[in-house]
Amino acid sequence: MRQIRQSREPCSRRILRAEQSTVYCINDTHGSGRQHGSGRQHASTTNMPSELHGIKAADVHAKIRLLINGMVNITDTTGEFLMTLEDGRVIDTKGWNDWEWTHGIGLLGLWQYYELTGEPEYLAIIEAWFRDRFAAGGTTKNINTMAVFLTLAYVYERTGNETYRPWLDSWAEWAYHDLPRTKYGGFQHLTYLEINKDQLWDDTLMMTVMPLAKIGLVLNRPHYVEEAKRQFLLHVQYLFDRTSGLFFHGWQFTDGNAENAESSGPGHNFANARWARGNSWVTMVIPEFLELLQLDVQNDAIGMILRDVLDAQCTALSHLQDTSGLWRTLLNVSIDDGSYLEASATAGFAYGMLKARRKRYLAGNTESAVAAIKGILGNVDARGELLNTSFGTGMGHDLQHYKDIPITSMPYGQAMAIMALVEFLREFI
Fold this sequence. Notes:
Elements: E1 14-18, E2 21-25, E3 51-52, E4 55-56, H1 57-72, E5 82-84, E6 90-92, H2 101-117, H3 120-135, H4 148-159, H5 165-178, E7 199-201, H6 203-218, H7 222-239, E8 250-253, E9 267-268, H8 276-292, H9 301-318, E10 327-328, E11 341-342, H10 343-358, H11 366-377, H12 400-403, H13 411-425
Antiparallel strand pairs: 1-2, 3-4, 5-6, 7-8, 8-9, 10-11
Helix pairs in contact: 1-13, 2-3, 2-4, 2-13, 4-5, 4-6, 5-6, 6-7, 6-8, 8-9, 8-10, 10-11, 10-13, 11-13
């Protein structure tokens, strides 16, 4: 089992190789506007206002660097969050040196900060992660492990490193041709532990559909892009709750099979849970997808549909936000009824709202987004951990399932906070 070893040396912007692990140490000094070792100004801080909405840009950069340091040095000290597979493999879902959707989101957060700052240390961390994972032989293909390839597609596009192309090709071909499908061709939410036969989940849009779309553009395979469009429409069709404007966590096709059905009809939405992080994936991926494919939200049919769905969701969210700026893990269930405040979903909502406004897909949502950003900043502790982050959450057949999910620091929590804060920094440009 690969573990990240904490360096006892003073923090510097270096990536250290140690045996079979990679040790990361991120510089935690901020606000100078200069890179260590050079006089070059940060692209993200030059000629920018120093404060907006009562938040200083230097403080946001400091929090992001703290989050990155916490993310790449996070460890599971108890073994509580290790995932043991049938074949004997053990997946470290909490630590940085393994391969699960948690790492896919972490890599994306790093990539977005690298794009904003241009600082090579962040690209180096990303490429070191892929180098180590590929050297270990890769992993099992499923919906969640596909998540890392969104970042790799961006890195390949930027660097032109041809050693990445076979990985992009192989995994995208698997997703397009061999990933199990539900009725009507939906991507079945296959994971390490569960087949999840005939199930659609919100999470799939982020973990597999976005990587497939990006690879389709990078490798010039338009059929991947068309498949991604289809998946977005299909998931919206079965997961969007027209009565609330929110999304259900999942959908089960049953074909009226009484043995497997929780309802006598063609399918059901399990516990009818309007789960926060599942909703946040949708809030994040719709503006990402619109931007990626350059869909016109005024004239393109798919662009208009996705824009309107996002608008309905954000409107609903604005009425459910806690005074702390956070949202509850079950959005429409009160704290008194056991639905705790959850920071990773809050970060996802802030990111999607801010990006949709910046790209002019939606107007408004500024007050909710800024309140969320302040709530996120208040939940980053001195170790760079995002507090009030719920552990990875499987499909619940009742609402208590979501209330009982433990809270712990996870790479995706830090990454979602990083993404939200990076998007907020664009307000200063």
